[in-house]
Amino acid sequence: xxxxxxxxxxxxxxxxxxxxxxxxxxxxxxxxxxxxxxxxxxxxxxxxxxxxxxxxxxxxxxxxxxxxxxxxxxxxxxxxxxxxxxxxxxxxxxxxxxxxxxxxxxxxxxxxxxxxxxxxxxxxxxxxxxxxxxxxxxxxxxxxxxxxxxxxxxxxxxxxxxxxxxxxxxxxxxxxxxxxxxxxxxxxxxxxxxxxxxxxxxxxxxxxxxxxxxxxxxxxxxxxxxxxxxxxxxxxxxxxxxxxxxxxxxxxxxxxxxxxxxxxxxxxxxxxxxxxxxxxxxxxxxxxxxxxxxxxxxxxxxxxxxxxxxxxxxxxxxxxxxxxxxxxxxxxxxxxxxxxxxxxxxxxxxxxxxxxxxxxxxxxxxxxxxxxxxxxxxxxxxxxxxxxxxxxxxxxxxxxxxxxxxxxxxxxxxxxxxxxxxxxxxxxxxxxxxxxxxxxxxxxxxxxxxxxxxxxxxxxxxxxxxxxxxxxxxxxxxxxxxxxxxxxxxxxxxxxxxxxxxxxxxxxxxxxxxxxxxxxxxxxxxxxxxxxxxxxxxxxxxxxxxxxxxxxxxxxxxxxxxxxxxxxxxxxxxxxxxxxxxxxxxxxxxxxxxxxxxxxxxxxxxxxxxxxxxxxxxxxxxxxxxxxxxxxxxxxxxxxxxxxxxxxxxxxxxxxxxxxxxxxxxxxxxxxxxxxxxxxxxxxxxxxxxxxxxxxxxxxxxxxxxxxxxxxxxxxxxxxxxxxxxxxxxxxxxxxxxxxxxxxxxxxxxxxxxxxxxxxxx
Length: 762
Description:
The protein is built from 21 helices and 14 strands. By secondary structure, the chain is of the alpha+beta class. Among the domains are: 1-65, no CATH class; 259-427 and 567-630, Up-down Bundle (Four Helix Bundle (Hemerythrin (Met), subunit A)), CATH 1.20.120.1240; 451-548, Roll (PH-domain like), CATH 2.30.29. The strands form three sheets. It has an eight-stranded mixed sheet with strand order 9-8-7-6-12-11-10-13. Strands 5-4-3-14 form a four-stranded mixed sheet, with helices on both faces. Helix 4 links the parallel strand 4 (123-128) and strand 5 (154-156). Helix 11 (332-344) runs antiparallel to helix 13.
């Protein structure tokens, strides 16, 4: 069934083409008014018929020289701009329509076509009104392309007269009359097979074919790139069968297995899907084990003054009433009391390391469940079950860690091979202990010297190297240009209040003997970006023997606390126990640094991996109904459908292109001709009257309407065109659709702004 549709009347099908004609007139009057006004808004009409070819016609108005009615003063320039907007497109064929009873050399249509198509590859001359030429004249030489030649030549057509239109002459009858005219006219009968509306349709269709054939290679390449870009994602959806009863079971098994693999890869490490922005998973846990946990232990190292005071209190309290007598022996009970107190302090860093590992495991689970986002309920349940199990293991791990500390407290093994013993402790001082460390490098890193650069316009950053004997700084981390080396003897560290304008955290080194630390400076202020970094440097300095400067505030009521160390005998005992505690705590620290990561690894990490591999699936089955778990999100369903449709469309498009490439016959472009006459022709008054006439609409198996002015432009659709909407008034360029029409879009019937019919010359 033949029918028509207007863009402004969506959903309404016109089967009576008299109604189509009336709708064009009504819409024209509605937009432009009834007094010969103009509008750049096009009327879009699409005609479906089995008897026509898929072409899009754009009917452009003739150039009006003198404004009439409601037309603006610059009507000529406006219409010219609209025409140029359409015919400048490279995929547009230009039908330069000129009446046979006017001077072809003065044709506005040919002149405009020459401006945008100097090679003549897109311009086809159409000669109308051949039946209205004066007696004794004909257009034979023009139609034979001998006089005023064009590269693609001319085609003659005979349209219905105004009388035929008013009398509603049938299109089929008009085509027969046109055919009869060419066969019977002595000047045209020898080329009748190359004249008429049917031949014009054939020529236009061939040009469309040529254009498609020329654009196929680039178009095929574009389609193949699109196909490759989505093929990996579509691979997941290819085997999707919504009606398969086992689909959800298979999907659940696959999702759980994928989650298990991803979790293990993130913990154990893998070459694929590497995060290049931050540490995560196993790498971060490794950092907790070997950097953060030892740092927390170092932070727990005791304050020297407080430790000595505690030792002196312990010795005095153990002697009890006997402290009035000379202290001949160093009490081992004081050593045990101090050591046990120091071991108990290790519980804090150990429990904190468990918390850090637990948090990182939960973060890893959250990252792995992102791949389960296709099934929101499955994602939530998996995260809930695994996170709950991790917290359960956290409690058991903490219990085991506390048990390890209690085991160390329960028995002080003074026969340990690394323990120095009482005899060696009496001969050993803190200085000797320090020298045993040698010149070992304790820490390296960037620090800002805060107070030295003030006079030079700002602080400056250097690369610092801390050893057991000195603190050196260099220009950069290559350590080639040393700026200074500061011995650590008699140095202490203290906090500096953060300034209001600075974002850095500051600490200072100073000499206990009131000497300058560096050149003329009593203090060396060093700045870090974070408080955590400051604490880390303080802990490292502590290991090198640079202690914090803390004044004693814990005196007893009689003010006798500091007097304990005045007794030389007591001082020697304090120093002995101090060395014993230091030796034994180094053994304990080494043991704890080794055991805690192993405990966490066994009771938490490995246990969680085994749970995911062996028990997660059972917990999911028992937690909720499988159908509820495996409900897809609406976004996922939509995306899968879109991707599969696009993939299928691309495959079909490539197959069609393959068929076209092998079966389509294309014709070469005609050779160039001498069309210099277009530039030399003198301009004369245009043949088209300036009065508008109402558009007329032929029935579907039609030919283009006779031109009373510049040509209608026929776009040769690109690779993505089908039957795009047809503008029926001058207007901006319409959007060309990307898909073909189901019924095969026919050539659209051109129309023009309302104009009164011209008088027919007799």
